[in-house]
Amino acid sequence: MLTNIIYLAVFIILAFVLSIAVKAITRGVEAKQIIKEEKNELSSKQSNISSMEIIDQINELKNLHEKGVLSDEEFKRAKEKILK
Q1: Which residue in 4, 31, 36, 74 is deepest, having the highest Cβ count within 10 Å?
Q2: What is the residue range of 20's domain?
Q3: Virtual torsion, Cα 16, 18, 24, 25, nearest 10 deg
Q4: pTM of structure
């Protein structure tokens, strides 16, 4: 009878420990997914900012070309350098 009570207590403790482990693993996986999503979002924002900077630089070159500060060849070389 005493051994049955001990086995039951051990089983209850084991079940409790396993439930805690499953919760911890689940939280870890969720946290990893959230971090991955945040990195992807940050990367897309940086890419949008980079695109806007390139557009601004090309517009500035266009304005200089229209004012006659840059020749056609200088404008083409500068634009190619920005786009690389």
Answers
A1: 74
A2: 2-83
A3: -160
A4: 0.49
Q: pLDDT, tens digit, for every residue of 36-71?
A: 998 888 777 777 768 888 888 889 989 999 998 888
Percent helix / strand / coil, the chain, rounded to 5: 95, 0, 5
Tokens 């695109």 map to which residue? 51
Residue 30: what residue type? E
Amino acid at 13: I
Residue 77: closest CA among 63, 58, 55: 58
Q: Is the dihedral of CA 9, 13, 16, 18 positive or negative?
A: negative
- How many domains does the structure of the chain reveal? 1
What is the Cα–Cα distance from 39 to 78, expressed in whole angstroms? 32
